[in-house]
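Reopening: structure tokens for the protoporphyrin IX containing FE complex, inputs below.
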Amino acid sequence: MSSVATTSVSPRYGSTAKWLHWSIAGLVVLQFGIALLMPDIGPHTVASTLINLHFSFGVLILVLMAVRFGNRLRHPVPLDMPGSPAWERRAAHVTQLAFYFILLVGPFLGWASASAHKLSVDVFGLVTLPAIAAPRAHWALTAGDIHIYLMWILAALIALHVAAALYHHFLRHDGVLRRMLPTGE
Ligand code: HEM
Ligand code: HEM
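Re-run output (same inputs, fresh job):
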């Protein structure tokens, strides 16, 4: 019996890719709101609703990103920016790679910091994840700092990404934004 290759390069995003793009985008914006409102996490911080929500939504984003990554590997979609110069295509590639990297690695750094601060990661009251760092572990406290830096880099890249999408739509009038819309082709 011969096996059939399942990987195919498609010129457009499928409905799963679009659904994941927009739900993750919404959750990431919500997550920044929660991060700004939650108390600073220090040596004597005790769990609160906002901190638990930050951990829960962070884990949900991580799980959805893992599904998205798998889906992207099985259904690659080439970047399509008609008439754009090479540097714009390069910037778009680097930004999209950075999104995957930060949203797949960054949550683990936050999780390590939570463990180092003796805060348990209770996901929506459904499941409690194990600690991945010892209390006060130096590396995990540093991981927490890196988590914060990475997430603010992410916020800047999102601003750039949104500005680029709007520029393509309203000034260039090409199909770049339409191809990611639920109704677009
Ligand atoms: C991918 C989604 C996530 C985003 C966008 C995000 C964003 C942020 C931001 C912006 C801050 C800084 C808040 C401030 O400056 O006051 C922060 C802090 C923090 N986040 Fe996240 N986070 C995410 C996922 C997680 C996860 C999954 C966990 C734990 C399971 C977590 C745990 C923490 C902790 C412990 C801090 C404080 C770090 C420290 O002071 O050492 N985050 N997060
Ligand atoms: C807020 C968080 C967001 C993140 C993390 C994000 C991330 C991504 C990523 C990783 C891709 C590459 C395609 C893929 O692998 O699925 C992408 C494509 C795209 N995004 Fe976003 N996005 C966000 C918000 C937005 C918003 C608000 C808009 C529109 C205003 C937008 C418009 C687009 C468009 C048009 C594409 C398709 C580009 C192309 O391949 O031609 N994104 N986004």
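Residues 15-78+88-180 form a domain with the Fumarate Reductase Cytochrome B subunit fold (CATH 1.20.950). The chain has one domain: 15-78+88-180. Marking as resolved unless the reporter disagrees.
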